[in-house]
Structures are given as structure tokens and as C-alpha cells.
Amino acid sequence: MFHQHFLSAPGTDLGPLDSGERVLWRGRCAVAEYAFDEASSLPRWTLPEETDVLVTDRRVRYAYADGDTLSSGELFWLWPQHLRVQPGNRGVGRNATVTQIQLVCNGPEGSFPALVLAGGALAKVGDADRLANVLRQAIARFRVENAAEIGVAPAHSRMLSRLVIGPEFSNYQGGEGQTVTLLGFVQVPTPESAEPIYAEATYDAPGYEEAAYQEPVHQEPAYQEPAYQEPAYQEPAYEEPAYEEAAYQEPAYQEPAYQEPAYQEPAYQEPAYQEPVYQEPVYEAAPVSSMPVSTMPVSSMPISSMPVSTTPISSMPTSGQRGYGDRPGMAADAMRAEEAMRAEQDSRYAEPDLASRASSLAARVANLLSSENDDDGFSPFGGQTTNLSTYLSQRPAEDPQAYR
Questions:
Q1: Which phi and psi angles does 199 have, rounded to 5°?
Q2: SS3 of 48, please?
Q3: Which structural domains are found in the chain, ordered by start?
Q4: Pick the residue with more confidence: 245 or 333?
Q5: Per-residue pLDDT for 305 more than 70?
Q6: Among 2, 207, 231, 369, which is 20 to 30 Å from 239 by CA?
């Protein structure tokens, strides 16, 4: 809806200033109201450059008298949200624009009405900057001093206090302009509509009587306690369980599924090392030969020239030692080895070489005794026979060749 927020009704005089209100700036310039929420909006109303403008520490007032008609309005420092200086361009003629001071407010229903001052005493950019500095300091100081009444937060008050001593506006012709945001603003109230109110015509309804409607009366039903009835006991009827003979089903033959055995590689095991057990050799008594032993003295010569094995019996490999495993015929081989060993021992203890030497010696001695005398008729033993035992008991001759 189209509203005029900052212009009073025609012929309204704003009257004198309030008590204690101080005037900060006075001059003449053009005044207009724009709707900044509408793109390329036209001004809602305008006043010429001869309009008197008065800036105080509480508001900005303006008035223009055209004969008997007086147009006036005001903008309090509670409402402005943004203060902007827009310098004019350097063009001439119809393309030229003038320098403006824009006081943008936050209106109802998302609108942004703005009061614009331009021309007259603000034709130059420097004059507009000076008036904009006055407006910024007046608005900031008013909100800081009345923060409790208008509900300005402490953080906003500190930021507004910086605007009082902040940098001034400094623009040039054809520049981009400058904008300052003013915290702690209050929304602009909706102005009263100046449009005439038309009375709505009334029409007489035809005469008929509407049936009177009667609300049915609700009656609460009376509560009756139910009579107690003891439940009748009924003995449960016995039912014989129905016997059903199980149907015989011959088991279906299933061919066993062949499963190939899984191949498992034999695990290699390192043969365990066993320390050979030392066994003390068992010495057995040598069997005595049944051959008669000669009574001849034993010669001091070696009995036999056959070398005797120096290998101990215990050093022979057995089935329990390392390196020999169980094989067929091992027991028979061990028995044959034992019999050969016993035979060797029997041959050593029986001394067959000594017996043969004794018999050979006896034959030679008998041959000597029975031989004839030599050519000289001399007999070494005087032709007498001598007992052989006497020769056998004598010491051997010095010459060992005599007994060979």
C-alpha cells in the first residue's frame, strides 16, 4: 500500500521546538521520499529547493508554504538505519545528477522508505559532506544518551560512540559515495491513511422469522451398579485323543556322493639324534679245549705270529646304535658274528700252535736217539737210551736253530 511516512497532512503546522531541543543546521534544499525496496521507484512526494530544513539533536524538520497551503514533515533519530552520501556525476543536461543525502529507514512489511535531501544549499559535494557529518554525530549521540529508553544493546552503544568521533565523510564529484550503518534503529510506524473512508450501504433484509434454535439439554445418565452373579461351574468334557497311525514311508535310497580324498603332502621330520650308549664289554670265560695239553715246557718264542685284532668287542655296531636301522637278517648277522668271535677266542686259549711245536720237537728228539753211530763209532749219548722226559725238562740250547 502506498504510504507517506515523513509528510504531514496539508496545512499542518509542526509548531515550535521542544524544550531543550538544540538546532544544529538550518538551510534550504529540495526534500523527497523514495521507496528503496522498489526497483527504479518514483518519489512518493517532493518539495522544491525553497523548502526550509531544520536539523536538531532529536530530528530533522522541513516545511514549504505555497500560498495558503503548508506542506511539512519530520524524521526522528529513532528511525534511520543507513546514512549515505551519493555524489552527482560530471554530466550536463538531462544526463546530469545532483548530490544527495539519503536517510534510509526500516519500514513495516519489509519496506525501506528513505528521506532524500538534495539541491539548494547542498548543490556542492563538500556542503553535502558537512551536513552528513552533522547528521551522523547527532543520530549516534542521541541513541547513546537514550540507550536505556529505546533499548540499545551495550555492544551497539559502544559502536555508536565510535561514530561520534569517527572519520568524516569525504567524497568528490562523480565518486562512488559513502554509507554508514546506524545501529539501534527502531522500525518506522505505519502512518494513518489519508484516504477518505466511505460508509458501507445497508440493505433491509426481507421480513421472515428464523426458527428459534434450542440447544438440546444434556442429561447425565444415572449410574446403576451391576448386580453380582456368581459364575456357574461347568465340568470340562473329557475328549478321547484321536489316535492316528503313522504312515510308513520307505526311506529313499541315496547314492553316496563320491568325494576325492584330499591330498596331503607328508610332513618332513628331521631324524632325532641319539647319543650312543657306552656298554661295558662282557668278558666270558674261554672254553677249555678237550685236546690233551702236552707236558712239554712252553717255549719262550711267540706262540703265534697271527696278528690279533685290536678292535674291542663293544665297538662292533649293534642294532641300537646310530646309523643302523631295523632290516631283515640283522639278528642272524649278529649271531654269526658272535659265533665267529667265540671260535677265535677258543683258538687263542687252546694254543694249537704250541701243541704242534711240542709234537714236532718230540719227533726230532726220538729221531736223534734212534740214529746210528757216526763213522768213528762215536755216539753222542754213549749208545744208551735215555728217558725222553729228561730232555724235555732241560733248558733250551743256546742256538735256537737246534729246535727248528
A1: -75, 135
A2: coil
A3: 23-181 (2.30.29.30), 291-404 (no CATH)
A4: 333
A5: no
A6: 231
Rounded to an integer, what distance in angstroms lies between the CA atom of residue 350 and that of residue 299? 15
Average pLDDT over residues 279-298: 50
The whole-angstrom separation of Cα 53 and Cα 59 is 11
State the average pLDDT over residues 146-158: 90
pTM, rounded to two decimals: 0.48
How big is the chain by its Cα radius of gyration, in Å?
78
DSSP string, 314-329: GGS--TTSTT----TT
* Secondary structure tally for the chain: helices H, strands E: 6, 10
The pLDDT tens digits of the residues spanning 346-396 come to 776 655 566 677 778 888 887 777 654 444 544 454 445 555 555 454 555
Residue (of 139, 97, 109, 104) closest to 33 by Cα position: 104
Nearest Cα to Cα of residue 5 among 104, 153, 151, 123 = 104
Q: Which residues of 279-316 are buried (b: 16+ CB within 10 A; e: fewer)?
A: eeeeeeeeeeeeeeebebeeeeeeeeeeeeeeeeeeee
Q: Which residues pair with residue 80 across a beta bridge? A: 105
108 Cβ partners below 8 Å, 6+ apart?
187, 188, 189, 190
Neighbours of 157 (CB within 10 A): 17
Cell numbers representing residue 104 in the block? 534510509
| φ and ψ of 371, to 5 deg | -75, 160
Which residues are CB-contacts of 99 (< 8 A; sequence separation ≥ 6)? 85, 86, 87, 88, 118, 122, 123, 124, 125, 128, 173
What's the rounded Cα separation, in Å, for the pair 363 and 381? 17
For the chain, give the percent of residues with pLDDT over 90.
28
- φ/ψ of residue 101, rounded to 5: -115, 120
191-220 pLDDT, tens digit each: 765 454 444 545 455 555 666 666 767 677
A 10 A CB-CB count for 214 gives: 6
At 47, is the secondary structure helix, strand, or coil? strand
Say which amino acid occupies 125.
V
Cell of 330: 640283522
If you search the block for the grid coordinates 655296531, which residue do you land on?
Answer: 317
Distance of CA 17 to the CA centre of its chain: 74
